[in-house]
Structures are given as structure tokens and as C-alpha cells.
Amino acid sequence: GATLTPALGHVAIPAALTVQEAILVGLQNNIALRVQKYNVPISRSREQSQRAAFDPTVSGTLQGGRTVGPNGGGNNPPGRATDQISGSAGVTEFLPTGTTIDAGVSTNNSFYSDSSSNSRLQVSVTQSLLRGAGLDVNLAALRSAEVSTKITQYQLRGFAEQLVDNIEETYWDLAYAERQVV
User: Consecutive sets of 10 residues in the chain, 182 residues long: mean pLDDT of each?
Assistant: First the structure.
């Protein structure tokens, strides 16, 4: 028989085929099968999107500036500068149990004439007691997306098996018809 090489696109059909070669050519040339193959990664991306609800969220700010005292009074002596910098960073995570954890740190510093500094560390834990409590509620959308991915995998498998069955049946029908002609 003819030697077939796997291809991403259309494969030329040799003049004589074995049943295995007919199946390979049919699978490689079937556009509907190529389209069906995209459903699994699309479904998997929905699953990843639902899983992202439990990813931590990071935030932060940084600010700075300089204040120069006016001539003749105010908090700063005339011409005296004060540099100030402040920043904050925080992390928030929602857990499948319905618990939300927030942690953050902030600092504020002044330099030169009135040097001062203050920092703050904050941690909070919030547990849902009624609405949104428990694994079943919070994982429902993720479990649904996982099941949807499995369904698309089985649909692709079923589509491919049906296609192979149709190719094989057509091959043997053609072989039988050719025998009848001879």
C-alpha cells in the first residue's frame, strides 16, 4: 500500500488504499473533526476561568512628593523641603471553604525637617456562615466546568469513533461493489 504521512491540512488520496489507510486519510481530511477538536481546549479554558476565582489578588500603591516651606511661616521654615513617601501592598484570597483572607502592609515616611515614619500591618479573615459557606457551594461552578470539559472530550471521542465507523463501512461497501462489477 501507499505510505501516508501525518499532515495538518488536506491529505491527497492515493489510488489504492487499505482499510487502515482509508481511515487515516478520512480522519486527516475531515474538517468537522478538526472543528470538534477545538471544543476541548475551549471548554478547558472555561474550567481555568472558574478555577481563577480562588487565585490570590495582589495590589499595591506607591506615592511620593516634596513640600517646600513658603517664605515667612507655615509648617516648614522658609525654603526648607520635606520629602514624603508612602506605599502599601496587599494580598486577598478567597478559599473554596467560603473564607476570605486579606493581608496588607502600609508605610508612610517623611524626611528632613520633621522626620517621621509609621507602618501598619493588617490581616483579616472572614468566614461565610450562611450564604457562600462550604465547599459544595463555592466549588459548584468549577465542578460544572470540569464536567463540561469531560463531556466535550467524550463528544470528540464519540464523533471520531462514528467517523471511523462510517469510513470503514464505506470502504467495505466500495470493496463489495467493486467485486460485484468484476
Answer: 52 81 91 93 95 95 83 56 89 93 94 77 92 84 95 96 95 88 71
